[in-house]
Every structure is written in structure tokens, then in C-alpha cells.
Amino acid sequence: MNHSAPFVLHAPAGYYLLRLSRYSLLLHRRSLLVGLLLSALLLISATAILSAGDDALGPWNVLQAALGRGEPLQVFLIQELRLPRLLAGLLSGAALGAAGCLLQTLARNRLATPGVIGIDNGATAFAVASIVAVPTSLAPSALALSGAATAAVLTFALAAGGGARGYRFIVVGIAVGALFGALTNLMLARSDMDAANAAYPWTVGSLNARPADSVMLLAIGLASGLPLARLLVNALTLMRFSDSVAIGLGVRLQRMRLLTLALCVWLTALAVAVVGPVGLIALAAPEMARHLCSRHGVPVINAALSGALMMILADWLGRSLLAPIEIPVGIITAVVGGPFLLWILLRQTPRSST
Questions:
Q1: pTM for the full model?
Q2: Fewer CB under 10 Å: which end of the chain, C or N?
Q3: What domains appear along the chain, each with residue ranges and CATH number?
């Protein structure tokens, strides 16, 4: 057998074994096919969204305009208006989907998403504070990261008796989120109209005219965070068992929990700094990925792809339903997210959440 060949036939059933030199990687076949399918759907949806609008363009014209060629008006329309919004949706949706998958696995609870346990509200409160309460030289994105970390630390500290899983963790997170939500409303109520309008996108979730520097920071954070999340998948898969079993299999629980939580906070804060608190994505994207992958392992990459697809479709729906009136993407996901949350609560499921 030539070990330098990229493909090796002797792989476990249901897997592909990739080997290059002395490195090898096992890939679950169904998960890989689901990833390719989601990527194709993303490409098709993105092309359709860039083409649609009052000034409809063909796919070839969209590609030419994205590369800076073609008519000046089309180049402006794609590069300055449609493409930045699409990129913000893709990146923020992917970040929220991956963060939701990580946190649900860490807490062993399908309801443990960044929004439910208060991380979204913490990031929002600090971002809004930087605009309306204590204006600083720091951008809202920097304050959002601090707020997300503060909410996460509070939730885990107050739920210490129950660990990072179970309904005590969820209830404490809801309380922490409610506290930060109340602070956000108080700051908005006591601010002037101009400041409140400037902070509005961070309270409902919107992809309209997102700051380019925040989108760039999110792109960098996602490019570093997703590979790290993929490296954690094997240990996270083992952490779905009891603590004693995971420790017996070589998992360093304390370090893994801190690293996973830090990564979740990082991705959530950067996403909220771009789009604001958007419900459903972190809840539904991991569920969709697990369903498509037959609940195999921790589908963090497919959850990111699912989140990106949901985000851009929800934004397109918000711009199309009552055009020319635009409904913020956060409102669209909230309308869909309520029934979806009830469905998860009422559905008969195994005790294991992942």
C-alpha cells in the first residue's frame, strides 16, 4: 500500500480515510455529503439573492460585477450594496450556527444556545451601552465581546452547583439574559432619539448597512474559530458521555470546557457585533445539521453552513415579504423561532440532547 496516496481503501464502514504522508483523517461519508449539499445550496441561494431585486441581474452579470467588471451601475450595485450585506449574513449565520452547536454539546442540552443563556443579551447590552450610555472610543464590536464574556461567566458561576448542563443551567441563563435585556431597555428609554436610532440594529438584528470593520473582524474570527472548533470535535463527541467515561477516554474536561466556552463566546460576540441578537439560528442550525447527518458526532461545520443558509434566506424573506418595506432579519427569525422552540420542547426525544 502506498501511504503517500491521498485515498486509502481500508477505511471503517461509512467513512473515507484520507492520508497524506504520515497524516491521516477519517471523514464520515454522510456528513461529508451533507456538507457538500449545504455548500451547493449556499452557492445557489447566494447567486439568486445577488441577482434578485428591482434591478435584476443574470448570474453572469453578477459574477462580472463582483469582479469589478461590467457596467459601473451594476458594479456599484453588487460590490457596494448587495455583496457586503450577503457576506455579513453568511459570516454571522455561520458563527451563530457553530456557536450554538458547541454550546449545546458542552451543556448536553438542545436548548442551551447563546441567546437562551444570555450571551446574546450580554453582548447587545454592552454594544448599546457604547452608543447611548457611556460612549467610548471602543467600537460596539469590542464592547460586545466583553458583554458576551461577562454573561457567560455569570451564567456558569451562578449555575456552578449544576455544572454546565441541565435545566438549572438553562434557567440561570434565562435570568442573566433577562437582566441584560432589562438594562438594554433602560438605556434606550433614557437616551435621546438619535442615539436610540443608532443603537436600534443591535436590539432587533439587522443586516442593513453593517460596519465594514466589524464584518472584517468577524471574517478573521470565523477563519480562526471554525478550524479550532473542528479540532475539538473528537473530544466534544466523547464529552457527550458521562464525565467519568470522558475522563477515562483521555478527555481533559476542565480545559475542554473552558476552551469550548471561550470559542462559543468569541463567535457569538463577533456575530452580535455585526448583526445584533438574531434568534433561531443558533437553535435551529445545529438541529438541522444533526438531523441531516443522522445525529452522528458533533456536526459543527455543517451547523455553520446551515446557519449561514438560514440567515441569508431569512434576510431575503424580510426584504421581499412587504417590499419596499424591510423587515429586520431578527424579527423574521423570532417569528419562526417561537414555534420552533415549542416544537423542540414538546417533541418526544431521547434524553441525550446531542
A1: 0.85
A2: N
A3: 32-346 (1.10.3470.10)
